[in-house]
Amino acid sequence: MTHVLLFLFLGQPVMADQQGADDELDVASFDAAVSQMSEDARAPGMAVAVLRNGQILHAKGYGITGPNGQPVTPQTAFQIGSITKSFVALVILQLASEGKLDLDDPVTRHVPTFRTASRWQSNRITIDHLVTHRSGLTTLDGNSAKEVDPGLSGPAAAVAALAGVQLFAEPGTNFQYSNANYVVLSHLIEVLDSRPFEQALKARIFEPLGMVNSFVQVPPSDAVAIATGYRLWFGAPRPWQPESGAAPDRRMIGAGGVSASIEDLARYVEAVRTRDPRIVPKGADRLFVIKPFYEQWGYGYGWYTDTAGDEPVFVHSGFTPGFFALATMVPAKGQVVVVLTNMSGLAHGDLPQAVTNAALGWDAVPAAAPISAKIAIWSAATAPLGLLLLLYKTGRRLLYRRQPMRPWVRWLNVGAVLGLVAGVYGVSIGFQEMMGVSFHTGYAFYPDFTATTVVTMAFALLLAAGRLALVARGG
Is there a single domain that holds both residue 8 and residue 56? Predict the structure, then answer.
């Protein structure tokens, strides 16, 4: 169950059955189908690129970039979220080829400040463990925004925040996807490359490939067109941007800080597929070496893997507040498909996967969220309404009625109080475990569901306090 929830909520690939790909793409029919999918999913904007053996078969923008109504073009930059991890893994391979590290080195050999709650376990975590998500750090650890020494910033601050976390498994033994792994790797890159992470990616990947509409967090100039993210509120997309004027938080840049246009990202994925010597060093043997973790799924150096027929498929999705993206390649068939959207939410459907399957001739999947997901979101809103009604009745009794409470009713109310408090505690723990995020982060990704959950817990505690007051008063 944990794996399924992580895939659904954190933007990891949920791949449909794949019976093999059609070698031909009817561009006109595909374009019409993509337009309909975008409409079905109610996506404000989207960009799609399909390549075959380096040839661009289709590269187009759909919809709008934001409230200004500007159309999406192949040059519009979208946040790509966790697809950033493939960039980080590639730079790690570059550093290894330059002799600056060995992939099996303990992380502490290069970053002495790195440690978890157990120094002994920390010393056994290798660079390879981090890249392949086998360090023992949890998903929740990677999505928590803990405050640390204000004298630290960026990846260094994020590494310091891991000092008290408990590993869920021995290093190297179990897979669990965690942004914390790539936070540490981004700091490692800054240490070994002697420059900020942003500059390292620009010099090592963006500039060699001519990715002029790609950047980490801050665009290089006002000339770059940037898509605005839309978060779903009970099925309705609403534009959302971080507070203006605030300095960007660099702590998570290695986990999901890259923005790129469809034109640039497709060029990058094609370069990875072909092991382009401009960015892929000789001897990068682990680039496509995949370590399985669940049935046919595996994870290697910044890419998940599945199969289409007998051919390996490499894929990574990206999910940040207001954006959902997917990059897919089938190296043996020379196929690359990249889809970028500026919409996200708990019931955002799977538009990127639907478009990808259509491009590769795989089994069709619906672009829009199933009706059950929409009903679930709206059903969640009824919980605080029911509690509010009970709170109203309890308040009226406290203010206007003094009726003696029978002993059995008193004990019933005591049980209700204990049940409400236990329920709030269980929901607060369960929410973070199920979603893999703290409430603060959860609000950024799933504002409707998180807000509803918090309001429900608040009403439950107020109701518990009201019922307890009735018991203490005797009626």
Answer: yes
Exposure class string for 43-72: b at 16+ Cβ within 10 A, else e: bbbbbbbbbbeeeebbbbbbbbbbeeeeeb
Q: How many domains does the chain have?
A: 2
Residue type, 412: L
Instruction: State how far Cα 365 lies from the chain centre.
Output: 21
The pLDDT tens digits for 319-346 are: 999 999 999 999 999 999 999 999 998 8
Please give the Cα distance from 129 to 188 (Å, whole number). 14
Domain identity same for 260 and 353? yes
Look at residues 132, 135, 369 and name the one whose alpha carbon lies nearest to residue 234: 369
Contact 384, 455 (CB under 8 A): yes
Q: Which two tokens stand for residue 449?
A: 């569901």
Give pTM, 2 decimals: 0.89
Query: Is 431 a member of any domain?
Result: yes
323, HSE (Cβ side, Cα atoms, 13 Å): 29
Q: Which amino acid makes up residue 364?
A: A
Question: Would you say residue 116 lies in a domain?
Answer: no
The three-class DSSP label of residue 450 is: helix
Integer Cα distance of 202 and 222 in angstroms = 17
Of 78, 41, 48, 148, give the one whose Cα is nearest residue 342.
78
Tens-place pLDDT, residues 224-243: 999 999 999 988 999 987 76
Tokens 């207001």 -> residue: 322
**Do both 317 and 391 map to the same domain?**
no
Q: Are residue 212 and residue 248 in the same domain, yes or no?
A: yes
Tokens of 375: 């009903």
Residues 87 and 195 in one domain: yes
Residues 6+ apart with CB under 8 A from 205: 87, 90, 91, 211, 268, 279
Residue 31 to residue 431: CA distance in whole angstroms: 39
d(CA 219, CA 104): 35
What's 288's domain CATH number? 3.40.710.10
